Amino acid sequence: MLHVEVRSPKHPPTPTPSSTATPTATDRDSAVPAHAVPASVLGVSAAPVGSLARWVGRLPGVGVVVVLAAVAVGLGRLVPVVGGPVFGIVLGVLAGVVVPVLRRERLRPGYEFASKNLLQLSIVVLGTGLSLQQVVRVGGSSLPVMLGTLTVALGGAWVFGRLLGVRGDTQTLIGVGTAICGGSAIAAATAAIGAKRSSVAYALATIFTFNVVAVLAFPPLGHLLGLSPEAFGLWAGTAINDTSSVVAAGYAYSQSAGDQALVVKLTRSLTLVPIVLTLVLLKSRRDARTTPATAESTHPAGAEPTTLTAEPTPPTAEPTPPTAEPTPPTAEPTPPTAGSAQVDAVERRKLPWRKLVPLFLVGFVAAAALRSAGLVPDAWQPGLTLTGTFLITCALAAIGLSLRPAELRAAGLRPLLLGAILWVAVAATSLLLQLVTNTL
């Protein structure tokens, strides 16, 4: 039975034995603690306090990242063939292994901020060194190789996923992450299809593993193969998964290779829009086919639905009239499975455009437009390039510090094997298509 008690603020009710009795265990459990009262009720704005607390919580982790990045940039100047970003991720991994205290949870917010936000800022800063004409030229010339590697990644995920027994959301997320832009693509696809948390963890661990391998392996392989800066930039931009790793490997090879790789990678990221929209459409159609069958199995014909009743207890004082009538329960409740499918469909329809077109991509194009308009003086370029490189190094150091060997082991062998097959296939396809199109 549902008891509803409405009290008037002007005429408080006289205490009754039921109201002064010792609360039961149920009453104590359901009581709202004082600290749970919304700040708005107390007349205090919670947003500034919460934002300030988040920023303060990020400072320790960001401080560790900045120190490691400063050391990595110095080492990168001593050994230019390796570069600061590569030293950044290596130092991050080593520091996390040698000094376990650097993996404490209190430092994780700063690492997450550096690996995401500082990386995005670095891409915008590097955009000031490119003109829109260069962006259009490089992006257009890379389309054949880009579309070929995209087809190999998605098709390979379907074929080899079936052979290895990696199916469902995990198969989809690894394929999309390898084909487009790593973690960003996995996040967008997760929002589109409502993937399980375990599948997201497996996919991210797999993509992350081969991002680290790519940063370390691609530059020496490029020199071994004698690739030009343009060829290496196209190879890195189409064959390496995550944007951070593409930027790190590209600029470790050379400045022009880094510029080329960055433009190719950002052009490749635009394919996320049609891919995610396709996933939304396929998921919606599958839900539409399964929902009627689920509803029928949940409520077989002839079964009496359970109705909900409520008998409110009369108030002990003059109640204040409620502002809105409570909605009476329906006689035929919606089946839980069908309702959850409808909620998932609504959430997918509410997929924010920022998941499809990231803000840093818009900022990159705007920075290139400023450069094309002559609003970024040439005298600023050395400083902007150094700033962009330092921010990239910070992001890579944070990624190295965030590495959790236990998470990689938990991913299991088969998802990692699927990621390895797709990674090798995409890298080989990129070089082969460059050879066929005379861009190698």
Description of the structure:
It contains 20 helices and no strands. The protein has 440 residues and is an all-alpha fold. The protein has a domain at 56-277 and 353-436. The longest helix has 33 residues, at 46-78. The chain is globular and about 60 Å long. It starts with 16 loop residues before the first helix and ends with a helix. The protein is 70% helix and 0% strand.
Going by helix content, strand content and strand pairing, the class is mainly alpha
Question: What are the secondary-structure elements, in order, as H or E?
Answer: HHHHHHHHHHHHHHHHHHHH
Number of helices: 20
Most strands sheet: none
Q: What is the radius of gyration computed over CA atoms, rounded to a whole number of angstroms? A: 28 Å
Instruction: Provide mean pLDDT, rounded.
Output: 75
Q: What characteristic shape results from the CA principal axes?
A: globular
- Multimerization status: single chain
Specify the helix fraction band: over 70%
